[in-house]
Write a structure and sequence with these properties.
single chain, 152 residues, 5-stranded antiparallel β-sheet
Length: 152
């Protein structure tokens, strides 16, 4: 199995685990509390899932991904977060943009990234997101549940 096939397998399983946690509140009531917003996944979950997915991929031996935050052009404060390295982009929340039909798991070369013309002002996530909150700290209980699903 190639690295890309292996990464795709891990990423797809991770996305499926997120959907399972979202779609089964009766089994995971501790994750569906006021303010968790898990029921809205993938909407407004790009930073959390990118951070958690990056940690999961690192646990599988893929440590070369960077988390990026990109802002829309024309002065908008809207942003989107995904993973990238020198060869591929991984975005498991692009489908939150409902007007267009993006896949649930988007893995492609950076030149083929479907959102590259919408989000181009790119910064490191540490410089933006972590100054306000730490996604892994706030959602550690969700990451733990994902790991239990994937490893259990």
């Amino acid at each position: 199995m190639s690295n890309l096939q292996d990464i795709t397998k891990h990423v797809t399983r991770f996305r499926t685990a997120m959907e399972t946690l979202r779609d089964q509140p009766e089994i995971y009531p501790h994750l569906h509390y006021a303010g968790s917003n898990l029921n809205t996944f993938p909407i407004l979950w790009c930073d959390y899932t990118s951070e958690m997915l990056n940690a999961y991929l690192k646990s599988k031996g893929y440590a070369d991904f960077n988390i990026v935050t990109a802002f829309k052009l024309r002065g908008s404060r809207k942003c989107h977060v995904w993973l990238t390295d020198d060869h591929i982009v991984i975005d498991i929340t692009a489908d939150q943009f409902g007007k267009r039909k993006y896949p649930k798991v988007l893995i492609c070369q950076p030149s083929d990234y479907l959102l590259k013309h919408q989000y181009r002002k790119i910064f490191s996530i540490e410089n933006i997101t972590h100054s306000y909150h730490d996604p892994m700290q706030q959602k550690h209980h969700i990451y733990q549940a994902i790991n239990e699903l994937l490893e259990g």
